[in-house]
Amino acid sequence: MVHLSLEDIEFIKILATSDATTLQIGMNDATKRRLDERVGVILREYYHENTMNTNTGWTKEFLKYGITEDYGKSAIACARRLGIDIS
After folding, report:
1. Is the sign of the CA dihedral 48, 54, 74, 24 positive or negative?
2. In the chain, where does DSSP find H-type helix?
3. What is the pTM of this model?
């Protein structure tokens, strides 16, 4: 399991509370790469934990930083709309 950085936490919270269209307009290549390579991996593992009961530990880690289940689901939905493969 990858350790969550403050940047990861903020990125997930932004995804959870933003519209994908608005994010896509201002997103540069470095941000897209970060989303896919780092945050996308975290969200995929979180998704698998919650759908396949894989016990990756992300649910507890997210809760420790105030990312609720609803925020997690919203972040996954937004990432998918941005073209990140979560499943």
Report:
1. negative
2. 6-17, 20-25, 29-34, 40-52, 58-64, 69-81
3. 0.86
